[in-house]
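Incident log, structure service

09:12 report received: a user says their structure output differs between two submissions of the same chain.
09:20 pulled the input from the user's history:
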Amino acid sequence: MNRVRKAAAALKFNGKNVDTSLKDYLESVAYEDVASGSSDTLSIKLHNITRQWMKGWYPKKGDTVEGSIKLLNWDKAGKTGKLFCGHFTLDDIHFSGNPMTASFDCVSAPASESFKTRQRNKTWENATIAEIAGEIAGRYSLTLSYAGAAIKIKKLEQSESDSAFLYGLCKDYGLSMKVYKKKIVIYDQTQIEQKSPVCTISMDDFVDNDWDAHDSLYGVYSGARISYKDPDDDKETSIYVGLKAEDAKGGRTLKMNVSADSVAEARLKAAAQVNLSNEGATTISGTIWPNMKICAGVTVNVTDFGKFNGKYFVDKSTMKLSGDSGTSQKIEMHKCQKRITA
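09:34 re-ran on a clean worker, output below:
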């Protein structure tokens, strides 16, 4: 059986299928999938030779966009794979020349600008992170997916947008967060890194030998010495958390000052900061032959890289379909390290 690999994007604007309308204009589609820290994005680039996109076909910021990527005969003849990218909001419209092109950038964040831009002043008291996230999600008609410990916040002042506040809150307590498919997703990355790899990749899987491996000591710690003041008596307390004794040979200690209501909260914040920093210890990035099993938030097994071999967590995956260069997938990942637990 003849096996001809093909890739195609399927797009909807405001619920209407536009594949036929865009067929003669579509230049490229790129889907950026992140594990944590920001929203997923979908970028659409179109030919604009007659400037029609600047006139009667001009879209509206805030339009809803749905995107999928289909891979035909990819793994084997007759097999079709489909990657649903999610629901997006048209966030930025850009035109350029020459050549004349139109670019539409879409984000998976809510259509309401207040999620990212409106400063909100609020005092949160005796609420768990899940409860805080649930209230914020409901404000924008999003659902909440929460998979983490029940962390209770005694008192916290919010003076920024809901988006920045919630991302920062999760980061402080060692949780990962992203917004996609009409959901706010919050999870414990430690649990994800303990899962079995979805596949194995070797150096041969990188297209045209396009890869970069990096091993760094800077910003890598074996523990943290954290100082905080008790809010009731203003007494300063200093504690240490780590993978080895603070005075152990070869140990590297991160020194921190934070606000905390208890020893347990201080330990949690210290562990979160060290674990996040240590993700930069060993990293690999590059362009691979598109693989739908590999997306942000999964682990893969890496072989054929010598000392770099091991289990890696995928931080970002960018799938791009282009008429000029075909289909590609760029991934960024860090080696799973032993993580500090509070």
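09:41 both user submissions now match this output. Likely a transient worker issue. Closing.
09:42 reviewer note: The two ends are 56 Å apart (CA to CA). The chain has a mean pLDDT of 90.
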